[in-house]
DNA sequence: TTGTAAGCGTTATCAG
DNA sequence: CTGATAACGCTTACAA
């Protein structure tokens, strides 16, 4: 028989024949399941390596009805998403979960990204800050377990894993008030998914201190921060501190202020949100609220796992005895659930913390 | 973990039965191929929609064996990669190809990313600036068409689509020389994939002007730029201009210089590489060499298409083996090779172009 | 125009 | 411990 022109056409049948065993034996041996002798296993493994055999994930998934592939949608342009994706990989590897990424771009909405993932028969979906209506989300959740990550959506049937935005904003406000600030402005996220939550958290935190919460319209990009800085520079009444919607906006703001000779934090303090890699740069030194991507990622995958187990077990008791943070709320609300991750503040130069 | 999950229970058999036709008719109708009456097609389509049917991509690909899925590896942390990924999606959509993304992170090398893509039986691979040996690349290329995007590697059997780095560096140097600079330093990319190419391009361009090419060790991150700036500030002989390896390093450098009261471009001009979104921000205003991600993406996908066509033809007509060294290398040099995209310079404030 | 049947590469079941 | 055999959901000759 002709040797395949393409090496990837080596199938398990070829391996089995070359090793002198049946395909089922080869399959078992290759997967490391018990049921074959050590000698056979070694021979099969060696043959497979020699032939350059690689399992066809598609065929396997087609046969097994319990795929391990989790689909992820994210926006490459958002640096926070990049951090989350990295964290997801870190959390997925030890769990033996395969990640399939699908990007959301200007020309490609969340729906397109999800459709492509669903066609690939991902067993579950993790949507990073999806910009969709709750109903749409619920629609997807009908066919596959869905986790909305870093999202304000609380929809029946979908698990939400998000930062406690109220606490995050309180962290920022308290930090500034402690340092004597009273005139604090929040530059909101404009069309950002979390805009309402963060603005609300800001207002609550300010009022708790008996302060007047001033919120200005901003956005999610550096450009929005730059525009805000320009408005701020020409305004009559300038605040003493600004809490931005995210780090990207905060950095745009910060750089423009500095370029205009404003002393940060002397004349004006700036606090960001997300604690991205850029915020930590020594020349930026942006104080920021950290969303803890690793915790978000871990809990998201764990929730998928528990939901999957429950689906499989149906009515039998769950034997888990861990004291996981998501445990309580998971039991309490059988079907939905918003698991909340506590943020923490990383104090740097822009709030006058470590000059 | 993740057991017992079924993405969608509705199969084409269900649709066919519900519509009162055979599965093959349903298949043909759903794919919009000719061979069924308009009435039947409509009935099947309607039934499918009502039942919430979705094709199982994996089963389809398993059967067709002519998959249209292209695997892509990239690093979420590199902003240039994000630009390329967006451009790839833009180029893929009209061509009707599906993209499958696989990230390269600190804990996950290119090899891991590629293995996962290969298990998914991607028909082809696009590796964005892969950090691997040529031999490894050639190994993958044996089983699937591979395009190395924005890579210096020129390996037999692998198509490379890259920016003309010599031209890019010449653009930067010429631009600075035109503005009267003669003491120009190149901050190289350290471990970056393109370090050797860009440094060589810099040297050539400088010598063409009769100037002494000074190259300093840098890196691919903002941190590297910051470190370089600190060295520069304390150095005895300071150049009048710096060409950085990429925008990230250039921006780290730029911000640190500005924070230290250095006038850019007055005291020192800075030029970056990649023309990332950040470089264009009004407060950054970084002059940069643009790699044109859209052109890179389009050409990469086009090369894959032509290569795939040729493979299809050859496997059906020529019963040769790939073990023939002469033939193989002949073919390789004939159909692969390096396609070069011309870069262009985007002049902004940091080189004193549009003050 | 439509239906029947044979796989694609894998794993699961149930015999030896 | 090992080996036939039947799916998984889909496409595609080939028949009707």
From TrEMBL, chains A, B:
Family matches, as SUPFAM superfamilies: lambda repressor-like DNA-binding domains, Periplasmic binding protein-like I
Key words of the record: DNA-binding, Transcription, Transcription regulation
Coiled-coil regions, chain positions: none
Region (Disordered): 311-334
Stored SMART domains: HTH_LACI
InterPro entries assigned to the protein according to its UniProt record, in alphabetical order: HTH_LacI (IPR000843), LacI/GalR-like_sensor (IPR046335), Lambda_DNA-bd_dom_sf (IPR010982), Peripla_BP_I (IPR028082)
HTH lacI-type domain span: 10-64
The keyword DNA-binding belongs to this UniProt entry's keyword annotation: yes
PANTHER family hit by this protein: LACI-RELATED TRANSCRIPTIONAL REPRESSOR (PTHR30146), LACTOSE OPERON REPRESSOR (PTHR30146:SF153)
The name this protein goes by in its record: LacI family transcriptional regulator
Organism name: Mobilicoccus caccae
């Amino acid at each position: 028989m002709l040797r395949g022109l393409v090496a990837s056409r080596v199938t398990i049948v070829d391996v089995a024949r070359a090793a002198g065993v049946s395909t089922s034996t080869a399959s078992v041996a290759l997967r490391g399941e018990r049921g074959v002798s050590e000698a056979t296993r070694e021979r099969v493994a060696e043959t497979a390596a020699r032939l350059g055999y690689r399992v066809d994930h598609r065929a396997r998934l087609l046969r097994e009805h319990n795929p391990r592939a989790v689909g992820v949608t994210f926006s490459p342009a958002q640096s926070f998403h990049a951090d989350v994706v990295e964290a997801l990989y870190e959390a997925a590897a030890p769990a033996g979960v395969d990640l399939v990424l699908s990007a959301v771009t200007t020309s490609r909405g969340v729906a397109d990204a999800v459709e492509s993932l669903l066609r690939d028969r991902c067993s579950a979906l993790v949507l990073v800050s999806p910009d969709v209506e709750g109903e749409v989300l619920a629609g997807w959740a009908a066919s596959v377990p869905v986790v909305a990550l870093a999202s304000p959506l609380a929809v029946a049937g979908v698990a939400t894993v998000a930062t406690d935005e109220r606490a995050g904003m309180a962290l920022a406000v308290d930090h500034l008030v402690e340092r004597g600030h009273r005139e604090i402005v929040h530059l909101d996220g404009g069309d950002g998914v979390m805009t309402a939550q963060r603005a609300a958290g800001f207002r609550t935190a300010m009022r708790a201190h008996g302060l007047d919460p001033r919120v200005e319209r901003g956005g999610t990009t550096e450009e929005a921060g730059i525009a805000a800085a320009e408005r701020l520079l020409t305004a009559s009444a300038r605040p003493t501190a600004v809490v931005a919607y995210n780090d990207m906006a905060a950095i745009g703001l910060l750089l423009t202020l500095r370029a205009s000779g404003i002393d940060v934090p002397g004349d004006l303090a700036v606090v960001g949100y997300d604690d991205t890699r850029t915020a930590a740069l020594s020349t930026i030194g942006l104080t920021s609220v950290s969303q803890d991507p690793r915790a978000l990622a871990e809990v998201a995958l764990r929730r998928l796992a528990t939901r999957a187990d429950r689906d499989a077990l149906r009515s039998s008791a769950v034997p888990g005895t861990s004291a996981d943070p998501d445990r309580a709320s998971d039991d309490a609300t059988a079907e939905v659930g918003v698991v909340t991750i506590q943020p923490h503040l990383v104090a740097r130069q822009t709030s006058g913390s470590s000059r």
